[in-house]
């Protein structure tokens, strides 16, 4: 095969490989971003539920503090009951004690209801903590895999770029210029094979005479339809 044609075919193969590697790499940051978004949402949901639980505990502490103050007030009121001198004062103290007892009873009822809510919330939070631990491990595993894939693809792209540069330097500049021009006009593909009279780039039939010439000589030919550089390739032999 013509040396320059062989180099152009190799150049196209490397170009295609580099493009595929870059496409694979371009998908990875998006995957990583979605993974991080999902993890962030999970963290926010957990933090919100934890805050609700902490708020209930704070509410419980506040009620316990109010109940203690109410109990102290009740104890002091009962102590003062023996010090009153008139029936009117006595009735007033009984009324005050009754009010404090009623308020303390209401607080106790609130505390009982709150304790049930705390127990339920604690169980839910404990289950969420277990789930979050699993999600965190899975997130970190997936994050490391994606980052590893990015690093691996970066290395492959780097090597491919080096090979491309070396190969470009071995081809006459007029050919590389022609190659780049055709590639720019045809979605990154400048060199394609022809089999059974059909161009592998545009999938159109080429003239029979041109097809015969491709099989006989190593000269550089272009597809009359898409202008890509073409060469004959026996697909049956490739399959074998």
Provide key terms for this protein.
240 residues, mainly alpha, Helix Hairpins, four-stranded mixed beta sheet, 5 helices, 5% strand
Describe the structure.
The protein is mainly α. The protein has two domains: 27-170, Helix Hairpins, CATH 1.10.287.1490; 174-239, no CATH class. 79% of the residues lie in helices and 5% in strands. It contains five helices and four strands, in the order H-H-H-E-E-H-E-E-H. It has helices at 3-81, 87-170, 173-185, 208-216, 235-239, and strands spanning 191-195, 198-199, 221-222, 229-232. It has a four-stranded mixed sheet with strand order 2-1-4-3. A hairpin with a 6-residue loop joins strand 3 (221-222) and strand 4 (229-232). Helix 1 (3-81) packs antiparallel against helix 2 (87-170). The longest helix has 84 residues, at 87-170. The protein is rod-shaped. The two termini are 20 Å apart. Keywords: Coiled coil. Pfam families: CT398_CC, Zn_ribbon_9. Residues 11-184 form the CT398-like coiled coil hairpin domain. Residues 198-230 form the C4-type zinc ribbon domain. Residues 60-170 form a coiled coil.
Layout of secondary structure:
Layout: H1 3-81, H2 87-170, H3 173-185, E1 191-195, E2 198-199, H4 208-216, E3 221-222, E4 229-232, H5 235-239
Parallel strand pairs: 1-4
Antiparallel strand pairs: 1-2, 3-4
Helix pairs in contact: 1-2
Pfam families: CT398_CC, Zn_ribbon_9
Domain C4-type zinc ribbon: 198-230
InterPro entries: CT398_CC_hairpin (IPR056003), Oxidative_Scav/Glycosyltrans (IPR052376), Zf-RING_7 (IPR003743)
């Amino acid at each position: 095969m013509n040396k320059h044609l062989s180099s152009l075919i190799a150049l196209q193969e490397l170009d295609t490989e580099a493009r595929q590697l870059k496409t694979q790499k371009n998908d990875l940051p998006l995957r990583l971003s979605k993974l991080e978004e999902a993890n962030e949402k999970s963290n926010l949901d957990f933090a919100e539920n934890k805050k609700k639980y902490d708020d209930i505990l704070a509410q419980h502490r506040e009620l316990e503090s109010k109940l203690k103050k109410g109990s102290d007030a009740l104890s002091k009121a009962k102590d003062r009951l023996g010090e009153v001198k008139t029936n009117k004062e006595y009735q007033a103290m009984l009324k005050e004690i009754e009010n404090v007892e009623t308020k303390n009873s209401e607080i106790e009822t609130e505390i009982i209801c709150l304790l049930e809510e705390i127990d339920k919330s604690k169980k839910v939070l404990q289950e969420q903590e277990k789930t979050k631990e699993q999600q965190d491990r899975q997130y970190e595993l997936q994050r490391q895999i994606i980052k590893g894939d990015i690093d691996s693809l970066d290395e492959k792209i780097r090597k491919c770029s080096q090979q491309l540069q070396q190969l470009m330097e071995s081809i006459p500049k007029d050919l590389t210029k022609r190659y780049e021009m055709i590639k720019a006009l045809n979605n990154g593909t400048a060199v394609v094979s022809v089999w059974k009279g059909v161009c592998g780039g545009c999938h159109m039939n080429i003239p029979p005479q041109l097809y015969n010439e491709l099989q006989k000589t190593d000269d550089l030919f272009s597809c009359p339809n898409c202008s890509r550089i073409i060469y004959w390739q026996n697909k049956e032999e490739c399959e074998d």
